[in-house]
Specification:
alpha+beta, single chain, globular, 25% helix, 1 helix
């Protein structure tokens, strides 16, 4: 199974079962979720290898 199929399945499952507290669920019809594959310190990495700075993780601390 390719990463794309796995990611699509994860996104569908997430939208059906996970509350995303900082987002209006209606927005996900037009703004897709970005599944993260790994993290290292403040950096997150998606399945394509793109890095993101996690600037909101401290909200939950």
């Amino acid at each position: 199974m390719s990463n794309q199929v796995k990611n699509k399945d994860l996104l569908n499952r997430s939208l059906q079962a996970v509350w995303h507290p900082c987002t209006q669920m209606k927005q996900h019809e037009h703004l897709p979720l970005v599944p993260m594959q790994s993290g290292d310190g403040v950096w997150l990495k998606d399945a394509d290898g793109k890095r993101y700075l996690d600037a909101v993780s401290s909200w939950w601390v």
